[in-house]
Write a structure and sequence with these properties.
Blueprint (H helix, E strand, L loop, with lengths): L1 E5 L3 H12 L5 E6 L3 H6 L6 E4 L13 H6 L4 H15 L6 E3 L4 H6 L5 E3 L7 H9 L18 E4 L11 H13 L5 E4 L7 H5 L3 E4 L3 H9 L3 E4 L3 H9 L2 E6 L9 H6 L2 E3 L5 H7 L1
Parallel strand pairs: 1-2, 1-4, 2-3, 4-5, 6-7, 6-9, 7-8, 9-10, 10-11
Helix pairs in contact: 1-10, 9-10
């Protein structure tokens, strides 16, 4: 059984877990322990092992070189590299699939038999399917889902530049209402979005844990989200994900969003109307 090494962001871990759950036992998860909360929150029940290592940052400093060199903080980079290198070379996990054949990954796995996700393809889900040499991920279709009852809007991200501008968020709420649905807006701790302003116009839910977040996604029929974790959790749960970007990022677009055109930008999300009226 080959192990998918998951040590980056929360969204990456959800994609890794989803692939393993669909692999028929051919792949299992090898997860850095800072990602355990999301693996538990989504209810992943497949085979999983946790690495007993503490990274300096999420994602590990090693993969965040730009920010680290900006602050001249190279110590964490080497510390994280040494810990990952030890995992690769100690022989305990002989069949590891790592993220990409970049120079950093190749240096980490020098002399070790490590397989990499194929680097071809513009999308992370497609790269996994190239690894499996098969179509793995089911494509959510509007006709195969239940009648739309709940529309959840998840407008924020840990990366503030991905957050919906308030004007975009209010316009989305109005658009959803035009089709007869009453949306709710979910705000995460530390959100830069004015909760008081939103709560005057729309049902607003505040979450304090990843488990709460996942529960609200599961109770939704459609999730309208920033380029953030809820996009991939929705795909995992077979809930329609509609992703709105500052600038479309095909690399991490959920595969159902990409295949169905369920995405837009802050300035143009006209395809949302097509989804809600169909």
């Amino acid at each position: 059984m080959r192990k998918i090494l998951s040590c980056l962001n929360l969204g990456d871990a959800v994609i890794d877990a989803y692939f393993c759950s669909l692999s028929g036992g051919e792949y299992s998860l090898l997860v850095a322990k800072h990602l355990r909360e999301i693996i538990d929150a989504i209810g992943y029940s497949g085979d999983v092992a946790y690495l007993d290592i503490d990274f300096q940052q999420i994602p590990p400093a090693l993969f965040n070189l730009k920010n680290n060199f900006k602050s001249i903080s190279v110590g964490p980079i080497f510390r994280d590299a040494i810990q990952l290198r030890k995992i690769f070379s100690d022989g305990q996990y002989s069949k590891i699939v790592a993220n990409s054949p970049s120079i950093r990954w190749k240096m980490l796995s020098l002399g070790v038999d490590v397989e990499y996700l194929p680097d071809s393809g513009r999308n992370i889900y497609e790269r996994y399917e190239r690894l499996a040499k098969a179509q793995v991920f089911p494509i959510i279709s509007r006709s195969s889902t239940n009648e739309i009852k709940q529309v959840g809007i998840f407008p924020d991200s840990r990366q503030v530049h991905k957050n919906f501008p308030i004007t975009t968020l209010l316009e989305i709420v109005d658009n959803v209402r035009l089709f007869g649905f009453e949306p709710f807006v979910v705000l995460t701790p530390g959100s830069s979005i004015d909760a008081n302003l939103i709560s005057k116009t729309c049902d607003t839910r505040k979450v304090s844990s990843l488990t709460d977040l996942c529960s609200l996604i599961q109770m939704s029929s459609v999730v309208i989200t920033a380029d953030s974790l809820p996009a991939h959790v929705s795909e995992y749960y077979n809930v329609i994900p509609f992703v709105i970007y500052r600038q479309v990022n095909y690399k991490y677009l959920p595969i159902s969003s990409m295949k169905n055109g369920w995405f837009g930008t802050f300035d143009d999300f006209s395809s949302l109307a097509d989804l809600l009226r169909s």
